[in-house]
Specification:
Elements lengths: L13 H18 L6 H6 L3 H16 L5 H14 L5
Length: 86
């Protein structure tokens, strides 16, 4: 539970809704259920931060040093280690 209420898709601008679509698609590929995670909705309050998060995630996906499935497993393990709620 975050201290700040996230921006819902109905309240978001067109660029934020586009980013939300990409996030849902990525989460759907990783977990099998396309949903919008809370940290992205909270980061939408600061569009430059939201774009920076997207660039980092894009760079991780574009890296060819590890197979895609292993990258996803490492990302999930790192989230579990730091206590990420999603």
């Amino acid at each position: 539970m975050s201290y700040l209420k996230g921006i819902e898709p109905a309240e978001a601008g067109w660029l934020t809704r586009l980013i939300y679509w990409f996030v849902r698609r990525g989460i759907g590929k990783a977990t099998g259920t396309a949903r919008l995670i809370e940290p992205v909705k909270v980061a939408a309050h600061h569009p430059p931060l939201l774009r920076a998060i997207g660039k980092v995630d894009g760079a991780v996906e574009a890296a060819r040093s590890l197979p895609t499935t292993l990258k996803r497993l490492v990302t999930l393990k790192a989230a579990m280690l730091v206590g990420c709620p999603f």
